[in-house]
Structures are given as C-alpha cells and as structure tokens.
C-alpha cells in the first residue's frame, strides 16, 4: 500500500539527504514504516529487526530512528537504552511505538533523546510523528499532501501549541504562588514571620502553607469527576492535565509512586495523547521524572514541589483539606 502523502527529499545543512533507521520485529509494521519514511523524503539507511540491529557492531544511526517494540524483554530494553544515549548525543530523532503492557519498561529507557513514544498506534499516528520531525527541518518544501492528512497535521499542530501555551501559563502561576507562599512540604526558618519581644520570639503562623488533603478525599473527587461519563459523552469533559494533577496529588498524599501506565489511564484520553501531555508538563517543570532506585530502566512521575504547593492551596481554597478531614473523623 502506497502512502498518500509525498514530500520532496529532505537534506541537512551540508546538502546530504536525511536518513532513517527502521527497527521492528513485526514484518508488516517494519515494511509500513519504511514505506512511510521513504515517502516523507528520507533515505533508508537500515531496515531490520531489533536483534539483528543490536548484534551489529557499531551500526550507523539515521537522522530519524523509527522503532517498534512490542515486547519488553531484557535484550530489547538494553537496545532501547543504547539508542536513547546515542540519539541524545547525536541529535537524531526517535519515534518509538509500543504496547500498553510494555509501556512502563519502554518509557524508562528514554531520558536523554526526547523520544516520541506512541502506544499501540495506527498508521496515521506514525505518519503524524514523522510530520512532527519534519516540522523541525528548515526549508522543507511540501509537494503533495492529502486533505485528510493535512487537516490531521493541522489539528495536531494546534493541539501541541495549545498544550504548550496552557502549560506555560499554568507554570507561571505555580511559580508565582511558590514565590509568594513557599512550598507545601518545605520547612522554613521564620525569617519574616516573627518579631522579637525582649528575649521571647513570637512566630506568626497565619500564613502557613497548607498541606495536601488526605488521599481518600482526593480520590473521592476523582470518582465524582469520572461519574459524569455515565450520563454524558466523556469527551465533553476531557481535561487530561487536570486529571493527571489530581491523580498525582492523591498519590503524593498517600506516599505512593505512580508509573506512567497508571498515569496514562488516569488521564482519561488515549495513551499516546496522555504521554504528550506528560512530556509537556515535565518540560514545563510541573511534573518530575524520578528513576526507579531498584531498576534504573524504569521511571516514575510525580508532582514538582511547586506544583504540589499550588494543588494544596487550591484544595484549601475550595474547602477540601484539614477541616474536611476533621469533619469526616
């Protein structure tokens, strides 16, 4: 099957055509990715299975690396970690597709390269990912693009731009709140909140930072939000950023770690979309990526301190906090 979009060949600053490495064990998907990369203007440098590429000594990498990894076995994870390191150093672009079952292991392999991770994607999802790579190529000339794909790329561009704009504003608000009131989980010396009377010191606790409410209260709020889907179309209320923040706030209150698969489910949108939100929120310093101390190939996601502070103040402002906990007790 021929791709229904065609680009002029893409070149680097030295006039060399950009190359692609296609790595996949599933034959049909490997052939599909190769076809789409060639149609996008890339020269195929390598097209083989993961084991075959991993066994090669010093195999060259393309400017774009398309990987399909459905199984999280040790050999594949070691190869993905090496690809992440090499791409991070060389500046190559990585697009990795995987399954929901393997997502946690695959996600933990990528910390340096800024890889696009797609979860059980269709062909259109892969084409869009290639389009995002091409968007960073200067002086690219588009010769032909089907109207359906044109609209899809336009919507993606608008979505990514909207995510970045919204999170930039949210990050600024969080930073402002942090500067004003201090962290929710930070012990601070009473530099401005006390005054001396002789040899006695009186501490002013009127502006003490609130704590996050009990995790059970936040979980109840999450269940109430989810109940709307029983009566209305769930897409009407899709708000992945807020659902991610709520789930992580509950986890922080419960002193529990959250894996990326669990967080994608909590976001209430397709996993690939959720990963896009998570990546943008990490870039905006709203979330932090925490390597698993027991398995360096895995990673967890958590609220940044300033974000936790902002969430605690939000809950206090709407009356969900210690007062509710005392009333429940």
From TrEMBL:
SUPFAM superfamilies attached to this UniProt entry: CheY-like, Winged helix' DNA-binding domain
InterPro entries listed in its UniProt record: CheY-like_superfamily, WH-like_DNA-bd_sf, WH_DNA-bd_sf
Protein name, entry field: MarR family winged helix-turn-helix transcriptional regulator
């Amino acid at each position: 099957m021929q791709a229904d979009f065609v680009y002029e060949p893409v070149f680097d600053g030295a006039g060399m055509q950009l190359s692609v490495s296609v790595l996949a064990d599933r034959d049909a998907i490997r052939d599909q990715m190769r076809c789409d990369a060639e149609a996008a203007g890339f020269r195929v440098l390598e097209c083989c299975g993961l084991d075959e590429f991993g066994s090669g000594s010093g195999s060259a990498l393309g400017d774009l690396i398309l990987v399909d990894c459905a199984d999280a076995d040790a050999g594949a994870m070691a190869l993905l970690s090496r690809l992440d390191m090499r791409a991070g150093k060389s500046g190559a672009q990585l697009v990795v597709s995987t399954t929901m079952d393997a997502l946690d292991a695959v996600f933990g392999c990528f910390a340096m390269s800024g890889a696009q991770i797609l979860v059980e994607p269709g062909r259109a999802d892969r084409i869009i990912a290639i389009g995002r790579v091409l968007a960073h190529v200067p002086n690219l000339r588009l010769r032909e693009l089907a109207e359906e794909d044109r609209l899809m790329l336009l919507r993606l561009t608008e979505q990514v731009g909207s995510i970045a704009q919204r999170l930039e504003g949210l990050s600024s608000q969080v930073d402002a709140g942090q500067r004003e009131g201090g962290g929710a989980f930070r012990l601070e010396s009473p530099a401005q909140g006390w005054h001396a009377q002789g040899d006695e010191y009186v501490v002013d606790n009127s502006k003490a930072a609130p704590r996050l409410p009990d995790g059970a209260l936040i979980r109840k709020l999450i269940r109430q939000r989810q109940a709307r889907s029983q009566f209305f179309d769930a897409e009407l209320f899709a708000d992945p950023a807020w659902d991610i923040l709520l789930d992580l706030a509950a986890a922080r209150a419960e002193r529990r770690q959250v894996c990326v698969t669990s967080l994608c489910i909590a976001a209430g949108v397709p996993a690939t979309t959720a990963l896009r939100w998570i990546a943008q929120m990490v870039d905006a310093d709203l979330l932090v990526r925490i390597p698993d101390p027991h398995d360096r190939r895995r990673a967890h996601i958590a609220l940044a301190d300033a974000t936790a502070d902002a969430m605690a103040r939000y809950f206090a402002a709407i009356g969900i906090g210690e007062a509710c906990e005392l009333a429940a007790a």
